[in-house]
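Re: the 601-residue chain
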Amino acid sequence: MGAASTTAIQTSRSERLTDPVERMSPLPPAKANAEMALFGIYEISKILTRPSRLETTLSNVVNVLTSFLQMRRGMIVVLDSADEVEIVAAAGWAEQKHGAARAIDSLPRPVIDRIVATTTPLVVQDVAHEPLFAGAKDLDSDRAEARVSFVGVPIKVDLKVVGTLSIDRVWDGRTQFRIDDDLRFLSMVANLVGQTVRLHRILAADRQRLLDERGMLEKALGAELAERHAGVPKVEGIVGESDAVRRVLATIAVVAKSNSTVLLRGESGTGKELFARAIHDLSPRKAKAFIKLNCAALPESVLESELFGHEKGAFTGAVGQRAGRFELAHGGTLLLDEIGEISPSFQAKLLRILQEGEFERVGGSRTLKVDVRLVCATNKNLEEAVAKGEFRADLYYRINVVPVFLPPLRERPGDIPHLARAFVGRFNAENGRKLTLAPSGLDVLSHCYFPGNVRELENCVRRTATLTHGETITAADFACHSGDCLSSLLWKSAPKKPGAPDPITVLASGFPVVAPTPLPAAAPPPPAAFDSSGESGPAGLCEHADANCPALGGRPSERERLIDAMERSGWVQAKAARIMGLTPRQIGYALKKHGIELKRF
């Protein structure tokens, strides 16, 4: 037959193969074919919309094609910008591990080039007599009297061909099919695949751009810090002379010069709002508005109205038009605190404005564009939330352009005296007092753990200053001296013994709570972590925390914490190990060490 058997065709309802066997074969009803094709497109569209790697998605599409077409093998080939093979997804080869390699050997490059050059489908009735398939492997039929045919269609993105979708089938004289129906079905599938390839490439380019921007900023930051000889900028409200605080201030001084999104990360009470304000004040946008919003403080319906605004009559109570926080922050900076607490549905709405810079008010149809520098803050482990599916990965990459980690107070103990004096000075200004801190009072504060960080320190200083009778705050004025320290009760995690009175109730009745006898100075205080042998140690504790820390007075022992973890896990050692951050072997060793018998259910 030679080259005459090769036909490049446009999809046509009336065009059929001229094979005599096919003309005598009864055709299936057109309605049944249409319904089957519609169902096939539906199943394939579900696969293409799943969040997965492009290679996996295309492999699933080829596998599903075998259920809707009379075919022996199928293959999708995706080309890169240089028209070189980038992805091969195949189905029908016996060795699935090497199926893609075998598949691309059976599809000669001239065939791909013909489809790319003509941008039209290619039909070969018998590949054995087609010069384009000369030297192709694994195309022979198991039966000598049968012949192998080939059908291929282009995968397009806009007007450019980015790949091919092809199948081959064995003509044995008994199969029944319509080539025009198959071409129409394959063309629709190729169109869907082309759109999926386009979206994946856009997302990959967007992610790479954000990573490149982050790398450039980090490089610029390193160069700036290396060349900088002057001190860190002085920012109102931020107190501290420790290296940890100076490093953060130096970082935000460089980051503030650009418009990149910043993600402030740190424990609760580390001053994320103050550092966000510092970024705004050091940026070219300092003359514009600084707007802040706590995402965890509002339900989703109210949060949408607060961020995007609403039109009059958009919902019950909307008596007038209202501008949202994005509009109010136009030209300035918007702080979204507790960004990790928003729902997945609202994450999708927030993603659009971060990508396009435009939105519509609730109940409105007019699209508004804004120019806002976004600063996000969270104390949540976003990487773990992304892994669990609780936080969108694309939104994570959008807000995590420049992460800034704020140090907890236990990593900057030298700043405690400076912070304490600043809080006393603020209290004096607000209440017309002239209080001062005695060295003994500063010594008490410097030995505290402060799990609540700066916020807890401020609360402690204000409470003590309010109840102080004299003009000097001494060690005897602090609540921990009389056993009334509420922080010690708050951070106490050991379960109550049956019949034991509630410490808060005891305090309310006017009796002091007697703290446990302090440990010897050489003994590390809890919370403790297990080492590899199961022994407890001071891992994760700051160097200045000691046995005199009031917040550590009521912490549970290693045995109590172990029993609590086992009870919470239903006495399953593997679950208890995950709770305590240990291995099952370490849990088993600790159970034997403390003589704890396992409960059987």
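Residues 1-27, 493-499, 502-548, 550-555 have pLDDT under 50 and may be disordered.
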